[in-house]
Design goal:
The complex is a heterotrimer of chains A (283), B (262) and C (283).
Chain A (H helix, E strand, L loop, with lengths): L2 H36 L1 H6 L2 H6 L3 E2 L4 E2 L2 H32 L2 H16 L2 H11 L1 H4 L3 H25 L3 H9 L4 H12 L1 H17 L2 H6 L17 H8 L9 H32 L1
Antiparallel strand pairs in A: 1-2
Chain B lengths: L13 E12 L2 E12 L3 E5 L6 H8 L9 E9 L2 E2 L7 H5 L2 E4 L10 H11 L5 H14 L3 H4 L12 H13 L5 E5 L7 H14 L4 E6 L2 H7 L2 E6 L2 E7 H6 L4 H8 L4
Parallel strand pairs in B: 3-8, 3-9, 6-7, 7-8
Antiparallel strand pairs in B: 1-2, 1-4, 4-5, 9-10
Chain C lengths: L2 H35 L5 H5 L15 H31 L5 H15 L3 H15 L5 H24 L4 H9 L4 H12 L1 H17 L25 H10 L3 H32 L6
The chains are: A mainly alpha (283), B alpha/beta (262), C mainly alpha (283).
């Protein structure tokens, strides 16, 4: 191959790669547009306020208020984050500040295994381990989700704390602080934005989780009044109702609208956390 | 090119001509207005305390500087009258004329054989027998052949650091360059390996233009025909080795050579 | 013991409890799957396709779902890898000219990786209707490749960024173009990492149910072409669990056991492969 054809090839492939990069970047836009277009019949006919803040879900009359499902989504997610955050934060402190090398070496694959367990399997185990005492309820879903977001929380928290420079810790220890005091005053303070971002990211994961929640949350179309009430989060709605899509003219559009609302909520949380993490990484 | 040659006075034919070279990392100047000619088929040593810009200078000679984010370069580097920083210049073609030896050996993630054959292969050599011959020839030239002839398929990382550096030399020679750029090539090596590399340079000096960056004064004395002294991003002085070492004109050069600054 | 030391001890104890709780959750899941799955596990499960009575508790196995899952995830992994590899190489090798695009792409991949799989399912459904295709292995592969593409890009990118810049420079100094450097040197050095990234993505693909709920179809036969419907293990588990027959419900745990074994095998393979392939890599 002579010199010129080498360079030509280089330029061609470079063009191709650039095109691919641009395409993956607009993928997310494509997803939003596709959902928007498909849910248009409902978006057009229903004022946004009614769609988001009405509890009237009567597909047969063409009334689609998503509030019940939005509340269900947030109830389950909030419960999961509240349950998972404290132990995960403490475990992350242990892993990054106290644990001997062999524990750390063991923890990494364990967290990976936890992250790799499929959603349906979490659901099945929730049936056996959680539902017997919590019922098919918000609480059951929150517990199952809490375990599911452990890997994200622990992984990012450890990474964020590890990024705190060693000199800062040493400076604190040299002043006579105990290890815990160093963690409390230096490490945790320094990594607060990153830890917050980890929480927000875990929230965005929990918001979109489908199968496991669907299996343990009970799926009744009502706003939960207590943790032991059943609920119907957005992803579960979509997964459970898709079979009905063809039954009503506007039903498919309504379900697509629910997916769009879910996506927008998730994106807000996700982009927030990524922005915080990005700024944190720069400083 | 009719510009007056900076080394014209000493009667050496220039191979690389650097003209008003400025390099900035962001707003931080790293090289300020460097103009110098590097003589053909001689060993030129670039001397100076650490942070004086000598590595930046060397990396400008094959345009690796602008692989760093936020770098701005102005001026010219003429290799055989071809400007390296001309936007139209084909940098891979010019780089082929130069072998680079870095501070730490940088073997590529492949076998000993493939490391040496890498350059010829990307430049179009496909013939098995020709490649075998090239590899053998250049490993011999770098003085490594006897040690590796039985394990050419072994990973390059199985070699000692000193052997790896000679492998990198062989790899650089295999693209048949005219110029060898070396950035403190012995700083990571033990004394025996260092002596080995220095010996190779002395053998190669008649055939190649060699530019070696070093902070070891004695190494420069042992090797250099021509010396460039740099300080704080400026070129302070340049000239034949004997002149610079025995009779430096500038105060900073004198202080550096006598060990007042280092 | 003074107050400071007491505080240290107290929090260390809390950390220990947290870490143990997480390990207990993992053991609980693995234990449940083994305890409930082993009794209903037999050779037929992995070697036979369902007979007509299988869904009522009759004879047969889930081979159709095993094969379906492997084909689906395998196909999607191949498609994604073909897209991800050039993209990642582009991000890392051409980065200088367009560093803003690179930063943005990394950001948007983080965002895309956070899109819930049920949303991918919805978009896949829209795409399927748009193209006029029936639910099939082909559509499933398209949807799952979209789902795992950002995951693979992120994982590969992380690995490629570990390749020392000097190595790329050494290649450039020999007159190699950026492309030659990318595919002959950088990719080679990162090969174990790239293989791991591919397997991580494969694992995600095998385990996901929500994205193929309405796009891959479901039947009792082995898929014989891209156009045929394909059962998947996660969906098989979900359907078995939803069955009114206790015998079939119990089989869900045996299917889950199979799924867990596949996922564990994938992650162990990733680790072994990493070690095997790194013969030429420079550490």
């Amino acid at each position: 191959m002579d010199h010129n054809s080498r360079l030509l090839k280089d330029r061609l492939i470079r063009r191709l790669i650039l095109t691919l990069i641009v395409v993956v970047n607009v993928l997310i836009v494509g997803i939003v547009l596709a959902l928007g277009a498909r849910s248009w019949p409902v978006l057009e006919a229903t004022p946004l306020g009614r769609l988001l803040f009405s509890t009237e879900w009567h597909p047969s009359d063409g009334r689609f208020g998503l509030l019940t499902f939005i509340v269900g989504t947030f109830a389950v997610t909030a419960g999961a984050v509240v349950l998972a955050a404290p132990p995960c934060l403490l475990a992350a402190v242990y892993l990054s500040e106290y644990a001997p090398r062999w524990v750390r070496a063991l923890a990494a694959p364990l967290v990976d295994v936890l992250a790799g367990i499929p959603s349906v399997v979490y659901g099945l185990c929730g049936i056996i381990l959680v539902v017997p005492w919590a019922g098919l309820s918000v609480l059951a879903a929150a517990v199952v989700l809490a375990v599911m977001i452990v890997p994200v929380l622990v992984h990012i928290s450890v990474e964020v704390m590890k990024a705190v420079p060693r000199e800062l810790r040493e400076a604190s220890l040299a002043l006579g602080a105990t290890r815990w005091e160093t963690v409390k005053h230096v490490v945790l303070r320094k990594s607060r934005p990153g830890l917050f971002a980890a929480g927000v990211l875990a929230t965005s994961r929990a918001l979109g989780e489908t199968m496991a929640v669907l299996m343990v949350v009970g799926c009744s179309v009502s706003i939960p009044r207590s943790p032991f009430d059943s609920a119907f989060p957005l992803p579960a709605l979509f997964a459970a109702q898709y079979g009905e899509m063809f039954s009503q003219p506007r039903y498919e559009a309504a379900l697509m609208a629910s997916a769009l609302v879910l996506l927008v909520i998730v994106l807000v949380f996700n982009i927030t956390s990524q922005a915080i993490l990005l700024r944190f990484a720069r400083s | 090119m009719t510009q007056p040659s900076a080394t014209g006075a000493v009667g050496l034919k220039p191979h690389i001509s650097v003209r008003n070279l400025n390099v900035y990392y962001g707003d931080q100047p790293a090289l300020a207005d460097v103009s110098v000619d590097i003589p053909d088929r001689k060993i030129t040593a670039v001397l100076g305390p650490s942070g004086c810009g000598k590595t930046t200078f060397l990396r400008s000679l094959n345009r690796l500087v602008d692989s760093v984010d936020g770098v701005r370069v102005s001026g010219q580097v003429l290799v055989d009258d071809e400007d390296l920083f001309d936007p139209a210049a084909e940098v891979t073609h010019i780089r082929k004329k130069m072998g680079l030896l870095s501070q730490r050996p940088s073997p590529l993630p492949m076998s000993i054989y493939d490391n040496v054959a890498y350059g010829p292969r990307i430049h179009g050599q496909r013939d098995r027998a020709a490649l075998d011959a090239l590899v053998e020839h250049h490993l011999k030239l770098a003085g490594l052949w006897e040690e590796v002839r039985d394990r050419l398929r072994a990973p390059a990382t199985s070699l000692s650091i000193g052997q790896q550096q000679r492998l990198c030399l062989a790899r650089g020679l295999a693209v048949e360059p005219e110029i060898i750029l070396a950035d403190e090539p012995t700083s990571a090596l033990d004394p025996v390996s260092s002596a080995h590399i220095e010996g190779k340079f002395r053998e190669l000096r008649d055939r190649y233009t060699i530019v070696i960056v070093t902070h070891i004064l004695r190494q420069a004395r042992r090797l250099a025909d021509y010396v460039i002294f740099m300080y704080m991003g400026r070129m302070v002085e340049h000239g034949p080795a004997a002149e610079i070492f025995d009779n430096p004109r500038e105060k900073q050069t004198r202080e550096y050579i006598s060990g007042v600054i280092s | 013991m003074n107050r400071r030391a007491a505080e240290e001890t107290f929090f260390k104890a809390l950390m220990g409890i947290s870490a143990l709780a997480i390990v207990a959750a993992l053991l609980g899941i693995v234990g449940t799957v083994l305890w409930k799955g082993l009794p209903t596990m037999n050779l037929d499960m992995v070697t036979k396709t369902p007979t007509g009575a299988f869904h009522l508790g009759g004879a047969g196995g889930v081979l159709n779902a095993i094969v379906g899952s492997l084909c689906l995830a395998g196909g999607a992994t191949v498609v994604s890898a073909c897209l991800a590899l050039p993209i990642v190489m582009g991000l890392n090798v051409y980065s200088r000219r367009a560093s803003r695009l690179v930063t943005f792409t990394r950001f948007s991949m983080d965002v895309l990786a956070g899109v819930p799989s049920i949303v991918f399912g919805a978009v896949g459904y829209i795409l399927m209707r748009l193209l006029g295709l029936p639910a099939s292995l082909l559509v499933g592969i398209i949807v799952v490749s979209l789902l795992i593409l950002p995951i693979m890009i992120k994982a590969m990118d992380e690995m490629v960024r570990l390749v020392p810049a000097e190595m790329a420079e050494a290649s450039a100094a020999l007159g190699a173009t950026r492309l030659e450097t990318a595919f002959r040197v950088v990719a080679r050095q990162a090969l174990p990492g790239l293989a791991t990234a591919v397997l991580i993505a494969f694992g995600r693909g095998v385990g996901d149910a929500a994205s193929v709920l309405f796009t891959a179809g479901f039947n009792d036969r082995l898929p014989d072409s891209l156009g045929s419907e394909a059962a998947t293990l996660p969906l098989m588990i979900f359907h078995q669990y939803n069955s009114p027959f206790p015998d079939v419900q119990n089989r869900a745990y045996a299917s889950a056991l199979i799924l867990m074994v596949i996922i564990l095998a994938v992650s162990v393979t990733a680790r072994i492969l990493t070690r095997r392939l790194s013969r030429h890599s420079i550490r």
